[in-house]
UniProtKB/TrEMBL annotation:
GO terms for molecular function: DNA-binding transcription factor activity; transcription cis-regulatory region binding. It comes from the Bacteria. This is LacI family transcriptional regulator. SUPFAM superfamilies: lambda repressor-like DNA-binding domains, Periplasmic binding protein-like I. InterPro entries: HTH_LacI, LacI/GalR-like_sensor, Lambda_DNA-bd_dom_sf, Peripla_BP_I. The keyword Transcription regulation applies. The keyword DNA-binding applies. It comes from Catenibacillus scindens. It holds the Pfam family Peripla_BP_3. Keywords: DNA-binding, Transcription, Transcription regulation. Transmembrane segments: none annotated. PROSITE patterns: HTH_LACI_2 (PS50932).
Length: 343
């Protein structure tokens, strides 16, 4: 027979009001007391289904957008759709959502993180796109549930929701090999983040699976923005560096910038050079030709992050899980049959 809240209060010698606040995730008790009550409730078999899953929660889920250099995390449709999914997921469960930015170059970063302890924060969804493992560790020291979004590190024990980058890059590169023949080149981001490292793994896995030599891959390092990639590729073309007949790009912005440069130097896309991107941003349907790219279900990814943090708020004793969101290839007109670059 399960224990009641009143019996739990008597057993712990804690007021029934404090028991109720802890079990219903309301403010008014210390973090240590709350954890003591939740541990005891689980130990003595308290029936957590007594608590309405739709109760209005006092406190909020915090979406923390961490900007290290800002070259990747920006006000783009990718992150807007992630945020939309998180908002929807929180709304479905009657949780408030607060969005805050942390900039690494500010002097008060440590204080901002520490302030979460005394705020109304019930749990953190941490956008880790530009972060390293060292950047994330201070958040994990807080006595607050944390879900890491859009990255993963083997050395960290925390929940992570991320794209299956290896799979996405693999299917894109394999498609280029099948459609274009020969060995695809790689438009690699000059900014090192975990997502791009994993996409590189997927690209080279496809090269190896096709029996092609990795050492023969033509790789250009480009800034991960449209204008940055355009400027970098123009310099490469001016120097007359060797080109591939097709390219996989780390994201759609790089692909778009490179295509702009190719056209300026009189290379036809896709007749002379085929290009695929990653992310399926709106720009991929606007540019001419439309960009073949890897679709990431961004809104769904945000919803999954919201569900997970709410689950951890309600039951913080769950073991960490890594959730990878699968991708699909969207075939458009930037890829054609076998060709070689020519002016």
């Amino acid at each position: 027979m399960s224990i009641t809240a009143k019996e739990l209060a008597k057993k712990l010698n804690i007021s029934p009001a404090a028991i109720s606040m802890a079990l219903n995730h309301k403010p008014g008790v210390s973090t240590a007391t709350r954890q003591k009550i939740l541990d005891a409730a689980q130990k003595y078999g308290y029936d957590f289904t007594r608590i309405s899953q739709k109760i209005t929660v006092h406190g909020a889920v915090y979406l923390i957008i961490y900007k290290k250099h800002g070259a990747v995390v920006a006000d783009t449709p990718f992150f807007a759709q992630l945020s939309e999914g998180i908002t929807l997921g929180c709304k479905k469960e009657n949780f408030n959502l607060k969005v805050t930015y942390i900039y690494e170059d500010e002097d008060n970063t440590e204080r901002q993180i520490e302030d979460l302890r005394v705020s109304d924060c019930l749990g953190v969804i941490l956008l880790g796109t530009e972060m390293t493992a060292a950047d994330i560790r201070p958040f994990l020291k807080l006595d607050i549930p944390v879900v890491l979004l859009d990255t993963y590190f083997e050395e960290l024990s925390c929940d992570s929701i991320l794209i299956n980058n290896i799979q996405g890059a693999y299917i894109a590169a394999s498609y280029l090999i099948k459609k274009c023949g020969g060995q695809p080149g790689y438009l690699h981001s000059s900014y090192p983040i975990q997502n791009f490292t994993e996409r590189a793994d997927g690209f080279y896995n496809a090269i190896r699976a096709a029996g092609l030599p990795v050492s023969k891959s033509v790789v250009h390092s480009l800034t991960p923005s449209v204008e940055g990639a355009y400027a970098d590729m123009c310099e490469i073309l001016k120097k007359g560096e060797r080109l591939a007949s097709s390219y996989f790009a780390d994201n759609d912005l790089i692909a778009t910038g490179a295509m702009k440069a190719f056209k300026e130097f009189h290379y036809r896309v896709p007749e002379d050079i085929s290009v695929t991107g990653f992310d399926d941003l709106p720009i991929s349907t606007v540019i001419e030709p439309n960009l073949t790219t890897v679709n990431v279900p961004k809104k769904y990814m945000g919803e999954i992050a919201a569900r997970r943090i709410i689950s951890l708020i309600r039951d913080p004793h769950q073991p960490p899980v890594k959730t990878e969101i699968s991708t699909t290839l969207v075939k458009r007109r930037s890829v054609c049959l076998a060709h070689s670059p020519q002016k």
